Amino acid sequence: MDLTATTAxxxxxxxxxxxxxxxxxxxxxxGGVLVTADADGVVFGASxxxxxxxxxxxxxxxxxxxxxxxGKPLAETLRALTQERVRLVVEGSRLAIRAEGARFALxxxxxxxxxxxxxxxxxxGVVAGRHLATALATVSATxxxxxxxxxxxxxxxxxxxxxxxxxxxxxxxxxIASVPFAGGGELDVMVPATLxxxxxxxxxxxxxxxxxxxxxxxxxCWTETVVTTAVLDGAxxxxxxLSLSGVDTVVKVSADxxxxxxRRVxxxxxxxxxxxxxxxxxxxxxxxxxxxxxEAEETVKATVSGGRxxxxxxxxxxxxxxxxxxxxxxxxxxxxxxxxxxxxxxxxGDVDLRYIVMPMLPPKG
Length: 365
Hints:
This protein is an alpha+beta fold. It folds into 3 domains: 2-113, DNA Polymerase III, subunit A, domain 2 (DNA Polymerase III, Chain A, domain 2, Roll), CATH 3.10.150.10; 125-240, DNA Polymerase III, Chain A, domain 2, CATH 3.10.150; 242-357, DNA Polymerase III, Chain A, domain 2. The protein contains 6 helices and 26 strands. It has helices at residues 7-20, 71-80, 129-142, 193-202, 255-266, 315-322; strands at 2-6, 32-38, 41-47, 51-57, 60-63, 65-70, 85-91, 94-99, 102-107, 125-128, 154-160, 163-169, 173-180, 188-192, 208-213, 217-222, 225-230, 249-254, 274-279, 283-290, 294-301, 303-306, 312-314, 329-334, 341-345, 352-357. The strands form 4 sheets. The chain has a 9-stranded antiparallel beta sheet with strand order 14-11-12-13-26-25-24-18-22. Strands 6-2-3-4-17-16-15-10 form an 8-stranded antiparallel beta sheet. Helix 3 (129-142) packs antiparallel against helix 4 (193-202). The model has no long low-confidence stretch (mean pLDDT 92).
């Protein structure tokens, strides 16, 4: 194999790949990157047996070939180069990375031991990259990171008419986002949130992303990238499991003002991070107290309708709920007692987002 390409293009392609499929540290083969060069350019591939990714890149290929090399060193070497162009060429049992005045050589791994990266079907529905990126930034972050409860580590993606609805929960809060979806047909899968979080970072400037699902596999495709993953068991995840029909207080407030106050008052919360939100006639009063930290309270102007109430939340979860609404006014739909509060934008955009937060016992005064 022998090819020449723009260093920045190769570095970006390999970096995207290793973030999508980090690899198995205990198995060098599964931590490797397949490099396939032919007349169409170069394709970088990776697989950990549960997920795969392919990223294509333009290159001038002098000799076709296919090799497997350690992924992380390849990515870091290409990223560190400052030369405009780079050459990848097989030299004996090494893949040489040659640039003006420099040579680096990576060992060739046993390519036949790698599970390979197939070319899955990419038919399916289409969603705007910026819409999906916005939805994933919030929804994927709400999923649990506890691998002991895998059912809560995924994001449910479901086609509902002309909308794609994304849901995730860690049992204490839930995020639900809805975005325009075209030509998708039936789609209802639970996808690992860690993968979708990385996908969201890569598609913000992409015009469209195509989604498709088979019996046990989910595929995303955009520009020169194709990603597949095994799906999780747990498509039943739904907000209908929560009671959301008993709202008796609605608060409209600046998300930025409320978040800033939560940050300040939250410094004085107890070990649980509990923060009380007392709803008054035209304001909300935030209050926190801790034996070691002291106590704090701050008011934020708001428009209030309905009854007066004083739910308490973990300050971190409340901040997470407000973060997607930077620069907007939000609506807090509060239910009485220990029932969920729903945070939404007063003026919804193309991405319709709901964040559901469960209350907690109030801080001890």
